[in-house]
Amino acid sequence: MSKEEKYQLLVRQIKALVEGEEDEIAKMANIAAMVHSEMGFWWTGFYRVQGDELVLGPFQGPVACSHIGFGRGVCGTAWKEGKTIIVPDVDQFPGHIACSSESRSEIVVPVRCPSACESASGSSEPIVAVLDIDSRSLATFDETDRVYLEQIVSLLF
Ligand code: SME
Is the dihedral of CA 142, 147, 149, 153 positive or negative? Predict the structure, then answer.
Protein backbone atom coordinates (compact mmCIF):
# COMPACT_ATOMS: atom_id res chain seq x y z
CA MET A 1 0.00 0.00 0.00
CA SER A 2 1.34 3.47 -0.84
CA LYS A 3 1.64 6.13 1.85
CA GLU A 4 -1.31 7.96 0.27
CA GLU A 5 -3.48 4.82 0.37
CA LYS A 6 -2.50 4.19 4.00
CA TYR A 7 -3.53 7.74 4.92
CA GLN A 8 -6.83 7.47 3.01
CA LEU A 9 -7.70 4.35 4.99
CA LEU A 10 -6.53 6.01 8.20
CA VAL A 11 -8.77 9.05 7.64
CA ARG A 12 -11.80 6.75 7.21
CA GLN A 13 -10.89 4.78 10.35
CA ILE A 14 -10.36 7.93 12.42
CA LYS A 15 -13.69 9.42 11.25
CA ALA A 16 -15.45 6.28 12.52
CA LEU A 17 -13.42 6.26 15.72
CA VAL A 18 -14.17 9.84 16.79
CA GLU A 19 -17.79 9.91 15.62
CA GLY A 20 -20.09 10.67 18.53
CA GLU A 21 -17.19 11.35 20.91
CA GLU A 22 -17.36 14.79 22.50
CA ASP A 23 -14.30 14.67 24.72
CA GLU A 24 -11.30 16.35 23.12
CA ILE A 25 -8.69 14.39 25.10
CA ALA A 26 -10.34 11.04 24.37
CA LYS A 27 -10.28 11.90 20.67
CA MET A 28 -6.64 13.01 20.81
CA ALA A 29 -5.71 9.77 22.61
CA ASN A 30 -7.32 7.52 20.02
CA ILE A 31 -6.04 9.58 17.08
CA ALA A 32 -2.47 9.41 18.45
CA ALA A 33 -2.78 5.65 18.95
CA MET A 34 -4.21 5.01 15.51
CA VAL A 35 -1.80 7.25 13.56
CA HIS A 36 1.13 5.79 15.51
CA SER A 37 0.24 2.12 15.02
CA GLU A 38 -0.95 2.35 11.42
CA MET A 39 1.91 4.52 10.13
CA GLY A 40 4.69 3.03 12.27
CA PHE A 41 6.11 6.33 13.54
CA TRP A 42 8.60 6.63 16.43
CA TRP A 43 6.66 9.16 18.50
CA THR A 44 3.15 10.51 17.85
CA GLY A 45 1.35 12.87 20.17
CA PHE A 46 -0.36 16.09 21.03
CA TYR A 47 0.84 19.10 22.98
CA ARG A 48 -2.04 21.27 24.24
CA VAL A 49 -1.91 25.05 24.55
CA GLN A 50 -2.14 25.95 28.23
CA GLY A 51 -1.60 29.68 28.76
CA ASP A 52 1.76 30.69 27.30
CA GLU A 53 3.15 27.19 26.83
CA LEU A 54 2.46 23.79 25.30
CA VAL A 55 1.83 20.95 27.74
CA LEU A 56 2.24 17.28 26.85
CA GLY A 57 -1.06 15.61 25.98
CA PRO A 58 -2.06 12.15 24.76
CA PHE A 59 0.82 10.40 22.99
CA GLN A 60 2.30 7.08 21.92
CA GLY A 61 6.00 6.35 22.14
CA PRO A 62 8.84 7.05 24.57
CA VAL A 63 8.67 9.51 27.47
CA ALA A 64 8.75 13.12 26.20
CA CYS A 65 9.32 16.69 27.39
CA SER A 66 6.27 17.94 29.30
CA HIS A 67 6.42 21.72 28.70
CA ILE A 68 7.44 23.72 25.60
CA GLY A 69 7.42 27.52 25.49
CA PHE A 70 5.82 29.68 22.77
CA GLY A 71 8.24 29.88 19.84
CA ARG A 72 10.52 27.18 21.31
CA GLY A 73 11.56 24.07 19.37
CA VAL A 74 9.66 22.81 16.34
CA CYS A 75 6.40 22.57 18.29
CA GLY A 76 6.53 26.08 19.72
CA THR A 77 7.53 27.45 16.30
CA ALA A 78 4.59 25.74 14.54
CA TRP A 79 2.30 27.25 17.21
CA LYS A 80 3.85 30.73 16.84
CA GLU A 81 3.82 30.70 13.03
CA GLY A 82 0.42 29.01 12.81
CA LYS A 83 1.51 26.58 10.15
CA THR A 84 2.72 23.03 9.65
CA ILE A 85 6.49 22.62 9.88
CA ILE A 86 8.34 19.72 8.24
CA VAL A 87 11.90 19.14 9.48
CA PRO A 88 13.86 16.69 7.28
CA ASP A 89 16.85 16.68 9.66
CA VAL A 90 16.31 17.77 13.25
CA ASP A 91 20.02 18.59 13.66
CA GLN A 92 19.57 21.35 11.08
CA PHE A 93 16.64 23.01 12.89
CA PRO A 94 17.92 25.75 15.20
CA GLY A 95 16.46 25.29 18.68
CA HIS A 96 15.13 21.79 18.07
CA ILE A 97 14.22 20.21 21.42
CA ALA A 98 15.63 16.69 21.57
CA CYS A 99 13.21 14.77 23.79
CA SER A 100 14.70 11.60 22.33
CA SER A 101 18.16 11.31 20.82
CA GLU A 102 16.71 8.75 18.37
CA SER A 103 14.56 11.33 16.51
CA ARG A 104 15.96 12.29 13.10
CA SER A 105 13.03 14.00 11.34
CA GLU A 106 9.80 15.57 12.47
CA ILE A 107 6.48 17.13 11.44
CA VAL A 108 4.36 19.43 13.60
CA VAL A 109 0.78 20.29 12.62
CA PRO A 110 -1.19 23.02 14.43
CA VAL A 111 -4.69 22.10 15.65
CA ARG A 112 -7.22 24.87 15.15
CA CYS A 113 -10.43 25.14 17.07
CA PRO A 114 -13.20 26.48 14.81
CA SER A 115 -14.58 29.81 16.06
CA ALA A 116 -17.78 28.09 17.19
CA CYS A 117 -15.98 25.90 19.71
CA GLU A 118 -15.06 27.09 23.15
CA SER A 119 -11.59 28.47 23.61
CA ALA A 120 -9.68 30.27 26.29
CA SER A 121 -8.37 32.99 24.00
CA GLY A 122 -11.67 33.93 22.37
CA SER A 123 -9.98 34.80 19.07
CA SER A 124 -11.28 33.24 15.86
CA GLU A 125 -9.84 29.84 14.98
CA PRO A 126 -7.14 29.90 17.65
CA ILE A 127 -4.51 27.17 17.83
CA VAL A 128 -5.42 24.93 20.75
CA ALA A 129 -2.82 22.19 20.31
CA VAL A 130 -0.20 20.78 17.97
CA LEU A 131 0.22 17.25 16.64
CA ASP A 132 3.90 16.30 16.76
CA ILE A 133 5.31 13.24 15.00
CA ASP A 134 8.91 12.04 15.11
CA SER A 135 10.72 9.51 12.96
CA ARG A 136 14.01 7.68 13.50
CA SER A 137 14.85 8.14 9.79
CA LEU A 138 15.87 11.34 8.03
CA ALA A 139 13.38 13.07 5.68
CA THR A 140 10.40 10.87 6.53
CA PHE A 141 7.76 13.58 6.09
CA ASP A 142 6.61 15.35 2.92
CA GLU A 143 3.59 17.11 1.44
CA THR A 144 1.50 13.91 1.54
CA ASP A 145 1.97 13.73 5.32
CA ARG A 146 1.13 17.43 5.67
CA VAL A 147 -2.10 17.19 3.63
CA TYR A 148 -3.43 14.10 5.42
CA LEU A 149 -2.30 15.01 8.93
CA GLU A 150 -3.95 18.45 8.57
CA GLN A 151 -7.12 16.62 7.51
CA ILE A 152 -6.82 14.26 10.49
CA VAL A 153 -6.44 17.02 13.10
CA SER A 154 -9.45 18.82 11.60
CA LEU A 155 -11.52 15.77 12.67
CA LEU A 156 -10.97 16.73 16.32
CA PHE A 157 -13.69 19.41 16.14
N1 SME B 1 11.21 17.90 19.09
C2 SME B 1 10.14 18.70 19.58
C3 SME B 1 9.86 18.44 21.03
C4 SME B 1 8.83 17.40 21.28
S5 SME B 1 9.39 15.82 21.11
O6 SME B 1 9.89 15.62 19.73
C7 SME B 1 8.24 14.70 21.45
C8 SME B 1 10.42 20.17 19.35
O9 SME B 1 11.52 20.56 18.96
O10 SME B 1 9.52 20.98 19.58
Answer: positive
For ligand 1, is residue 56 a contact (CB within 6 Å)? Answer: no
Task: Give the model's pLDDT for residue 64.
Answer: 97
**Is the C-beta atom of 65 inside 6 A of ligand 1?**
yes
Q: What is the pLDDT of residue 123?
A: 56
Give me ligand 1 centre to Cα 103, in Å.
9
Helix axes 24-39, 143-154, angle to 10 degrees: 150
Q: What is the DSSP code (8-state) at residue 100?
A: -
Which strands form 43-50's sheet, in the order they lie side by side? 67-69, 53-60, 43-50, 127-135, 105-112, 85-87
Q: Kindly state if the Cβ of 75 falls inside 6 Å of ligand 1.
A: yes
Would the pTM of this model clear 0.85, i.e. be above it? Answer: yes
Residue-level pLDDT at 118:
57
CA distances from 98 to 2, 12, 105 (A): 30, 33, 11
**What does the pLDDT average to over 92-107?**
95
| 112 alpha carbon – ligand 1 mean position (Å) | 19
Model confidence over 64-83: pLDDT tens digits? 999 999 999 999 999 999 99
The residue whose CA has the least distance to atom 6 of ligand 1 is 99
